[in-house]
Amino acid sequence: MKFLALVVLGFSLLFGAVDINTANQKELMSLKGIGDKKAATILEYRSANCFKSVDDLMKVKGIGQKFIEKNKDNLTASECKVK
């Protein structure tokens, strides 16, 4: 199982974009400026909401425009599925 997680993480890093609607904590932590706590905060926000665009990340406490600009090429938001 750990091997599969590493392979998935490797592919996401190799091919670029981290999908903020599907990424797990480790994938989120691969982004510049995201540690354990911010990744957990993003996952907590996502459990009640989904991201319609990358800019929606700014709705998460501690995420701002500078973060979006630094990581723009490494972020994507898949189709939002309402829970």
Q: How would you explain this protein's 3D organization?
A:
It is a single chain. The chain has 83 residues and is mainly alpha-helical. It has one domain: Photosystem II 12 kDa extrinsic protein (DNA polymerase, domain 1, Orthogonal Bundle). It is built from four helices and two strands; from the N terminus they run αβαααβ. It has helices at 2-14, 25-29, 36-48, 65-71; strands spanning 18-19, 75-76. It has a two-stranded parallel ribbon with strand order 1-2.
Question: Keywords, please?
Answer:
single chain; 83 residues; mainly alpha; DNA polymerase, domain 1; two-stranded parallel ribbon; 4 helices; 2 strands; globular
Give the helix/strand class: mainly alpha
Low confidence ranges: none
Neighbour order of strands in the largest sheet: 1-2
- Annotation, overall tally of beta strands: 2
Largest sheet report = 2 strands, parallel
- How much β-strand is present in the residues? under 5%
Following the backbone from N to C, one meets helices and strands in this order, namely HEHHHE
Average pLDDT, all residues: 86
Task: Give a brief description.
With 83 residues, this protein is mainly alpha-helical. 46% of the residues lie in helices and 5% in strands.
Please outline the helices and strands.
Layout: H1 2-14, E1 18-19, H2 25-29, H3 36-48, H4 65-71, E2 75-76
